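Homework help board

Subject: predicted structure for assignment chain

Our instructor gave us this sequence and asked us to write out the predicted structure in C-alpha cell form, then describe one feature. I got the C-alpha cells but I'm not sure how to describe them. Can anyone check?
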Amino acid sequence: MTAASGRNRRERVAGSVGALLCTALLLFSGTSQAQPGRGAGETLDAAARAKRVARVSAVLNEAYVFPDVAKKMEAAIRQKLKAGAYDKLTHSAELADALTRDLQAVSKDKHLSIRYAPAMPPGMDPNEPRQEAAHEQRRRELASMNFGFAKVERLAGNVGYLDLRSFVGAELAGETAISAMNFLANSDAVLIDLRKNGGGEPSMIQLITSYFFDEPTHLNSFYIRKGNTTHQFWTSAHVTGKRMTNVPVYVLTSPHTFSAAEEFSYNLKNLKRATLVGETTGGGAHPVEPHFLADVKLLAFVPFGRAVNPITGTNWEGTGVAPDIQVPADKALETAHLNALKKLQSKATDGEQKQQFAWAIQKVEALATPVTLSPELLKSFAGRYGRDTLLYENGSLWYQWRQDGPKIRAVPMTADTLMLDDGMDILRLRIEKDASGKVTGLTELSADGRTEHYPRSGS
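My C-alpha cell output:
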C-alpha cells in the first residue's frame, strides 16, 4: 500500500466513524428538527413493556462495544421487568428513562441511552427524500451557533483564548476553525476553553490539534466491534496558516467536558503538548451510533467502539480526564492565564519582555481579586496633578490627561493603584501619600516600565 493510498483509507474510515458521531451529536443537539419525542409517549401495558425490553436487549447484543457487558445489561433489565420494577411505568418516555438509568448502572457508560421517539429523526434514513433539506436545516442551525466557536480573543500578555462549545465536523465548521486558529497564530500562549463542551466529531479534533504539531502525529484510535477493526486518527500534514508548534497550550476542563472534548484533552495531555487546568471531565470515551427501533418507537444510542490511546493503550471511559492543575472550574481561566504568563516571564530573554509579562500579571491578579475602595478614599484621590486630573463623579474616579480631553474611568487595582478602562492598558496611575496618609502626588506607570511623577497641585 502506498503512502497516499494509506492516507486515503485513513480518511475514509475516519469519515465513516465521524459521520456516526456527527449524527449522534446532531440528534443530541436539542434542535427542533432532530430532537426525539419529549412527550410521555404511548400508554404501555405489561406486554408492551416486555416487548421494549426485548428490543433494547437485542440491539445491545448486536452492537454494544463489549458483548459480555451487553449480556449483563440484558440480564439486569429482564430481571427488573420480572420483578415488577417497571410495572408502574405506563408511558414510553418513562420506561425509556428507567432503562437508561438501569443500563448505565451496569455499564457505567454515559454515552448509552434510550429515548422515546415517535418517528425516525430526520437525517437518519439514507433513503429519506428530503434528507438533503434536513441536513441543510441542521447546517443552518449549527451555523447560527457559529459551529461551537463561542469566542476567540487576545487576553493580557498576548495570550490567545478560544471558547469552544462543540467539535462540529470539519466539513461543516472547517472554515470557522481555520479562521479562529489563524487569529490565535501570533499568541505567546493559547488557552482552549472546553468547560462547556459536550463533544462532537474526531475530524475537528484533528484539524485544531494539527496546528500544534510540526509532524504527523498519532492522536487516537477507535476499536470498532463490528468487523473487529481499528481506525487511527492522525494530525494533518497540511494546515491553512501558521502552525503554533512551540506555543504553550492550556486546556480548561470541567465535569461538563465530555466525549470528543475529553479526547482532545486526553490526547494533548498524554502527548505532553498541553497543560490541563480545572476539574476532572465527565468520563465518556465510546463513539455512539443511534438505532431507531420503529416497532417500539424508541431511539437507542449505542456505543459501538472504544477509544484506544497510542500512548496509554486505554482511554478515559468512566474515569474522566484529570487536570494537571486541579482548581474549581470557575477559576480555571484565571489560573491558566496566570500560569502561562508567569512561565512566559521566567523564560523571557530580555528586560522588555519580562516587563511586558509582569505588567500583564499585575492586571490578571487584580481582576482575580478585585478591590473595592470606599467613596471617601476615592474622593481623596480627586484633584489636579500637573497636566492630569482625577474627578470623582457618580461613585467612580475619572481620569483626564488634559482639561479638554475625554474622561476615562479609573478602576482600582490595589489600594493605591488605578487602571484606566480604555481598552488599551498602556498607562496606570499610582497615588502617592506622605507618612500621615495625605495624598501628595500621582505617578504615571507605563507598560514599558517608564514612570513620570506629578505633585498634587489642586483639589
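Reply (TA_rk): Your C-alpha cells look well-formed. For the description, you could write something like this. The mean pLDDT is 90. That's the kind of observation they're looking for.
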